[in-house]
Write a structure and sequence with these properties.
Largest sheet: 6 strands, antiparallel
Number of helices: 5
Oligomer: single chain
Order of helices and strands: EHHEEHEEEHH
Shape: globular
Strand order of the largest sheet: 2-3-1-4-5-6
Helix content: 25-40%
Distance between the termini: 27 Å
Length: 158
């Protein structure tokens, strides 16, 4: 089981709201021909994405999502699909219940890139001692995601 927190930003409030509606079970179109032709490619990108357990809009361009996924490639596919659907930026923080490995990811040029991995075995992705201490003080995946996005945007983590 994977627990995935995601923050996406969009070029406009309208773009963000459109993706929000397509990810909500009660407002997702049942068929692609129910979507305007100009938005069909974006819709098809996320048509098979699981419904998030929680969604929240923030500001004019951000969408926060929380997914409970079955694992496997679901995390990578979900992040890539959100980018393909038109998100300008996509960040994710994934906690794998089976392996106890947590990862911080960003979609860059259409590819999911892992920037940091807690409890993993790739030395290049292990957080510094100071960063590990900061992350240990945070209570949940969303707080860790917010902290890590801030570090990336300040150029402290690449």
């Amino acid at each position: 089981m994977n627990f995935l927190w995601v923050r996406c930003t969009f070029a406009s409030k309208a773009a963000r709201d459109r993706i929000h509606d397509w990810l909500a079970e009660e407002t997702r179109p049942d068929f692609e021909d129910e979507v305007e032709e100009r938005w069909r490619e974006a819709f098809l990108a996320i048509e098979d994405v699981d419904f998030p357990s929680h969604m929240a809009k923030e500001g004019d361009d951000q969408l926060w999502l929380y997914f409970v996924l079955d694992g496997g490639d679901a995390v990578w596919l979900t992040l890539a699909a959100l980018k393909d659907a038109g998100a300008k930026t996509v960040y994710g923080y994934d906690m794998d219940d089976d392996t106890a490995i947590s990862g911080f990811m960003q979609v860059v040029r259409g590819r999911v890139k892992t920037l940091l991995e807690e409890n993993g075995d790739d030395d290049k992705l292990v957080p510094s001692e100071e960063l590990a201490k900061q992350l240990a003080r945070l209570n949940n995946g969303k707080e860790k995601l917010v902290y890590l996005i801030d570090a990336v945007e300040k150029g402290q983590l690449t």
